């Protein structure tokens, strides 16, 4: 049997073939020798510098320049625990060749998925993130931070570029939604010791959309329209910074409670109306001044106009 002759490569075709072979060999060797244990140690040290302790059950190479981790737990100094079922992270090679550090990530947590890219280069930082199907009822850190029993399925899509040296160059967009949202628990009310305990209130669908420009993230839309409660943000914005938890928050909010909700807690109505009488609007809603930070928002009744 006569074997077919292989094609003879000449000129640029020969050089391209050699280049492709060496590139594939390099990527194969990189994947087989990727230092997963060194990555584990680096992640632990970086997290500790930010006040977090990291524990993981397993870490193995994934792709050409990445790792896959299972049963990861993040715990802060004040006891906030975030369990992650699976996490994948990989270095993006093309941005690296252009002088930018870029990391792609994919997390499975709270029965949903969080994926995106973190990139840094020449003093500019970028975060592109998409969240799907995050079940807030299973997110214990939210309850620990807010004191409220939150429920609903969160989706989000954001892309923000941050320039710490020049806020005018900080720009981007933020979109979010929570389907089947509800809340209950204890709401802090200024002048009322211990706050106000409320039964579960259905918020329907919560939607939000904000534009980031010159370091300022201003909400074009932030509202909830549910059978028990309606809420709307007005002139609400926060100043973007690397640690978003402490980003200053400003604005106002209107809240209107439906009669259907008061039927669940008739004794609560008199208490709420007495405490919030100064913020009552002609349409029956209450108006609040919003302040604090993005991670620790606060509100106080705003006097009538």
Can you give a write-up of this model?
With 305 residues, this protein is of the alpha+beta class. The protein has a domain at 35-112. The protein is built from 6 helices and 14 strands. The protein has helices at 12-32, 36-49, 93-97, 140-146, 259-262, 266-275, and strands at 52-62, 66-76, 81-91, 101-109, 112-121, 124-135, 148-162, 171-189, 192-213, 216-225, 229-239, 249-257, 286-292, 297-301. Strands 1-2-3-4-5-6-7-8-9-10-11-12-13-14 form a 14-stranded antiparallel sheet. Strand 5 and strand 6 form a beta hairpin.
Biggest sheet details = 14 strands, antiparallel
Shape, per Cα inertia axes: globular
Query: Radius of gyration in whole Å, from Cα?
Result: 25 Å
Strand content: over 45%
Number of strands: 14
| Spans where pLDDT lies below 50 across 5 or more residues | none
Helix fraction, binned, reads 10-25%
Reading the helices and strands in chain order gives HHEEEHEEEHEEEEEEHHEE
What structural category characterises the helix and strand content? Answer: alpha+beta
- End-to-end CA span: 97 Å
Please give the count of helices. 6
Mean pLDDT: 79
Lateral arrangement of strands in the main beta sheet: 1-2-3-4-5-6-7-8-9-10-11-12-13-14
């Amino acid at each position: 049997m006569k074997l077919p002759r292989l094609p003879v490569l000449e000129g640029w075709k020969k050089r391209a073939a050699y280049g492709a072979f060496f590139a594939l060999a390099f990527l194969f060797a990189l994947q087989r020798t990727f230092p997963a244990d060194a990555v584990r140690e680096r992640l632990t040290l970086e997290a500790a510098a930010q006040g977090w302790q990291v524990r993981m059950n397993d870490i193995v190479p994934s792709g050409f320049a990445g790792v896959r981790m299972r049963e990861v737990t993040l715990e802060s100094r004040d006891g906030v625990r975030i369990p992650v079922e699976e996490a994948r992270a990989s270095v993006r090679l093309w941005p690296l060749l252009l002088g930018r550090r870029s990391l792609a990530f994919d997390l499975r947590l709270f029965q949903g998925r969080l994926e995106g890219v973190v990139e840094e280069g020449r003093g500019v930082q970028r975060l592109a993130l998409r969240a799907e199907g995050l079940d807030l009822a299973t997110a214990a850190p939210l309850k620990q931070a807010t004191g409220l029993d939150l429920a609903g399925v969160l989706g989000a899509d954001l892309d923000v570029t941050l320039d710490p040296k020049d806020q005018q160059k900080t720009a981007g967009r933020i979109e979010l939604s929570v389907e089947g949202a509800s809340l209950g628990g204890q709401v802090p009310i200024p002048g009322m010791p211990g706050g106000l305990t409320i039964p579960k209130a259905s918020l329907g669908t919560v939607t939000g959309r904000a534009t980031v420009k010159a370091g300022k993230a201003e909400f074009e839309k932030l509202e909830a329209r549910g059978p028990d409660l309606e809420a709307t943000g007005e002139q609400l914005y926060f100043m973007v910074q690397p640690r978003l938890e402490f980003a200053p928050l400003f604005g106002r909010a209107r809240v209107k409670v439906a009669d259907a909700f008061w039927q669940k807690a008739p004794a609560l109505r008199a208490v709420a109306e007495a405490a919030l009488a100064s913020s009552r609007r002609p349409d029956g809603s209450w108006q609040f001044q919003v302040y604090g930070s993005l991670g620790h928002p606060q509100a106080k009744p705003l006097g009538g106009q």
